[in-house]
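Tutorial handout. Part one gives the primary structure; part two gives the three-dimensional structure as tokens.
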Amino acid sequence: MKEIITVTGRIAPEELGFCQCHEHIAMSKGISYQINPALCMDDMEKSLEETKRFHLAGGAEQYGVTIAIEPVVKHIVYDARRARTVLDEIGSPNLQILFDPVNLLNMENVDRREEVFAEAIELLGKDIAMIHFKDFLRKDAGGQLAATGAGQGGMEDYRTILRFAKQEKPYIFATLENTTPENAVECLNYLKKQYDEC
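Part two.
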């Protein structure tokens, strides 16, 4: 008999139901919700409880993998303080942070972005496993900023994040987001120039 091993035990394939290509333990009503309302997981307590059960069952440690939380201003883990709460509640060295600075910004805090980034680095720095680099456009996309490639929008100065990476996490994984084949090299060079200045 074929079985699928889940974090809660073995199940028959026909019991699995709808799956996404990767798991979101916590997210708010967005595109996924519009496609399938069952995908709305916006209860922080339930999400923490599910993550604790996974951790107690051996979780990421058992498989030697790192699971990363990506705080996003429009999700339930919406800022650095909330992400720190999740990390502390779970208490696993295998639960870390995917730091996407632009995802912490919205129309209300974009002009205080250096303060937002400094707080995130202070609270989450030791647990940051990866950094996403992108930029933002100030056009209101449903109360949010629109994303674009690094150096292509209003961000301008990445040195706070780059200095952190260079001094505290020199071997950290980093990716460019929201680039195109036409601007990827330009975006990379924009960041490299500021990195060299740090």
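Part three, for discussion. The first strand starts at residue 4 and ends at 6. The chain has a mean pLDDT of 85.
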